Structures are given as structure tokens and as C-alpha cells.
Automatic annotation (TrEMBL):
Superkingdom of this protein's organism: Bacteria
Name of protein: Uncharacterized protein
Originating organism: Bosea vaviloviae
High-level lineage: Bacteria, Pseudomonadati, Pseudomonadota, Alphaproteobacteria, Hyphomicrobiales
Amino acid sequence: MRCGRLQNLPDSGTIISMPRYEPLNTGVPLQASASDLIAFQWQTDGIAADFLLPGDDAHLLRVSFDRPCIVRLLDEMALSTEEDETANEGLVPEHFAYRLEGARFARVQSEAWKASGPTAHYQFVTGWGCMDVLSAGSPSFSVVARSG
């Protein structure tokens, strides 16, 4: 496992990894609790997801990956009640984008996926819709015009 920190549980003797959050810079200020996931598109060998930019009705923040992905979309309520084995390290209030190490979502994927090469776990948190992405690619961030 590539994760940085391991913890030995005295009651079970099981070694588990502690979820560790590394905040990512999107290049755009964004109040996470006021944002939302409003569009998602599968693309050839990747994805694109659009998030609200609070206070800007004319633009969206697009998060895209250009490599195969495993994606999980869920409501913030489900994410906030998800239990991992230990406390989360590195969470920042109102922050939107993270790279994670040691979270359960990445650990429980198939051996075939894990054998396909090194991948990273990314999480994008809003006050409503959230997105987890497992990919060998890195996210790219761009501000796009909001249509309609």
C-alpha cells in the first residue's frame, strides 16, 4: 500500500491506514459548502464534472481527468456519515479539492483495478453533491462559461 501512515489497533492487531487528506489548489477561490456538482460527463478515457462557483452565475469550475477512472457521486450527507476506521487528517474547513491516501473507497476496489497500475484517490467536496475519483491521471481545473 502506498499510504503514508499506518496504525496498529491494539484490540484487533490489524494494521490499517489512516485517511490522510492533502488539499489541492484549484486556482480559483471557492466556498465548498456553497458549491454543488451540477453536471457530470463520461468521456473517452476520462471524465468532466462541473461545479458551481458561488457568487458567479456566469461560470463553473470544471474538474477533468484524461485517464480511465472509477467515480463515486454522492450527497454530502452520505459522505459526512461515512465511517472510516480512524479520524481524518488534513481536512481544511470550506476546502473543495483533496488528494487522499488510505481511505476505504480506494482500498476496497478490485485486485484487477489495483494491478492496472498506480492510481490516486481524489475527493471533491461541496455542500451538496460530492465526487470521489480513482485514476492514474491528475485532475485539471478550468473555469468555463455556464450555458443556459
